[in-house]
Input
Amino acid sequence: MIIDLPTSLDFKLSGLSYLNLSFSRVLRLLWHLDESKVQAWDSDGSATSEYWEAAQEPLATAVTLLHQACEFLIKGLICEVSPYLLISQSPNKWPSGCSANDISFSEYRTVDAQDLVKVANTVCEERLPEAFISLFDRIRRDRNKLTHTAKSGVVLIPDNILKDILNTYTLLIQSTGWVEQRRNYLSNNYETIVYSSDHINCYYSWELLKVSSFLSPSEIKKYFGYNKKQRAYICPACDCIEKFKVAYLKPNSGSLSCIICGNSIPIVRKSCKYCKGNVLSKSNVCLLCGSPNEIYKV
Ligand SMILES: [Zn+2]
Ligand SMILES: [Zn+2]
Output
């Protein structure tokens, strides 16, 4: 018999992990640009252009990771019907001795990436969305050019890769929930085994605001669920030196909701002495400008 059969969940979790790795790969490149404060000294944009030209290879690895994620996610859908549908060859090409010995599923040749959509759309109850089929086809063709030729002619743009990752998530996994799953990934991935996870909220605030800067208000609403046009406040629970504004007023509740840490933050409605804000934390820090206001006497 065939042993070590994969489950649909195995593929889905691996697919999600590869989506996050691809996202992190692009964000790392953007992080270096911010850290170098290139915008302050690169007045004609030539250093930034040169940077992205030199970063084409790391961007290509992000595309390869995204392609791998798509493959796993489609395989997960096929696996829901049966993992045996993923075995591509006829019995005369199966591993030798397979009828007499238990052989691992990984020893069998599985369906090629170019046939996955056809298989999924044939055997699954629900067909893949058209938007995903064309996205996957484009990623697959780019990835083939990038991995099979030294001069592919493909020019990779970081924000386009980020949008492709977000689209893959919303089309194939679920329409909402990127923010929560990404927080979960950053808080529990391999880095947190050797580092503390204390810095996660501040890093994640930077990341979410950085990605949002590439998106339209409607894309932000679609992928992250918040309204860019609404006034944002500092989250005292995230406690970042950079005072990132990542919390929003919850209607009629006397509290803020933070998109990064997910906490509900109680507020006090008092005018700030230093700005036009009137949303203070329980310890009288203005959550618009970040200035501590002295304690009010009752
Ligand atoms: Zn927070
Ligand atoms: Zn203020």
Observations:
- The chain is about 50% helix and 10% strand.
